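Homework help board

Subject: predicted structure for assignment chain

Our instructor gave us this sequence and asked us to write out the predicted structure in token form, then describe one feature. I got the tokens but I'm not sure how to describe them. Can anyone check?
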Amino acid sequence: MLDRYLPKIGFVLALAATATALLVAKDNPSTPPQMITLNLAAVDSHGQPVQDLRAEDIQVIDNGKPQPVVWLRSLSAKTPEPRATFILIDLFNADLQSAGLSENEVVEALEKVHSDANIYLYLLTSAATIFPVHGVAASSDPQWTQHVKASLDDAIRQTNGLKAGNQLSRLQRIGPTWNALSNLAGQLAQVPGPKSFIWVTQGIQNGLVPPGQGPEQFVHIVSPVRDFSDKLNALGTAIYTVQQKPSGSLAVESTGTPGDTLKQLSELTGGQSFPTDSTSQAITQAMSEVRQVNYRLGFLPQKVDGKYHKIQLTSTRSGVKIQTAVRYYGSGADIERNLPTRNSRPMLAGLLNEIARSPFDYPEIGVRATMSGSTLTIHLDGHDALFLKDGPRYKAELSVDIAESGANGPMKSTGPVVVNLDMSEDEHAKALTAGIDIPRSLVLDGATRQVRVAVLDHTSYLAGTSTIPAAHK
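My token output:
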């Protein structure tokens, strides 16, 4: 049905083509094709993190039926503190009155946070571009939140006069908004560890009425919400939405409306939706809850049907409470069957590229690089690669990228290379003890000063980096 109208709404094709999916594709040799990956916080009755959970301690209920936990990884010992919080003020989808309200609420909230908080602030401008007020690449200034009003006012002045989003119809805003959010996800990918993302917005609808049809023919478009939330889950990010109501109206949450879009994003990532005038509460809660995220988990759903599933995670251990996403979309056929299928490989390549050029080290996978002549040896901690047992074999799949940098910054990267690990039981036992060596031939540019190795696990989406000085003859 939808394909009849796609030529008339080219932006839908654009957002579908740029949206990337995280569930592993069927051609992946090491990961079951319908694996669902979740980030979760496990705390005791006093709200303190529980550090020693095992996969068998967790029960997943999917639409009322228990499902097996395939793997569980602890994040506590290998992720940096403080955890990062990203805030996006959406001017593209806001009227002037709501935009001013959003800015004042964010300023008031940020002026109260501690100077050592790890916070990044961006604008979604009226031209549907992402503009950093205090971005990942910003120079270190622990006191920046104390003068955030001046920084925000300056950013708004710089972007003022651009084409206003409120001059466009709701339908015309959908594609540019998802494209901008995808670009912001690249910024999130450059910061290691669990993160929270606060989107202060009037929101966007997630569907359309085909030309010439009545409201009863509304078509709910699933893939943008599904794919963006999948990407956030891979980045260990929960989204907290604050819906600023349009002037003189009330926010609604019927299917496909902006309120429904924001609610789904929060449910799919383990965050929460807040009503208007709740920005300070959203920031406080997001910063508090991201500190408690201490595990990543994978489970197999019983049925892959493309529907919106309700899930509940509980612990069989007394007194342990688990907080995580409460929904996921199956990856089966849905109303958008004629749009591109979900495929993890473009997303993985994009994530790895951001990690390779990030200013931060990634400690989630132990990586050590050494250079001898033209041979670069990448040594991995065998416990950090996620092996899945397949009969008598142990299999894992990784991607490796090698980036060179000179005196003036990054120059080039080799691009992602997939490394398939397929081991016997004895080989796997040896890897756990001695680690895993991956040799790569590398001829350095004469201007290279440093070599940075980035490794991404296809199953857990955890990453590791190592940076060494270039060895020139």
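Reply (TA_rk): Your tokens look well-formed. For the description, you could write something like this. Residues 1-342 form a domain with the Rossmann fold fold (CATH 3.40.50.410). That's the kind of observation they're looking for.
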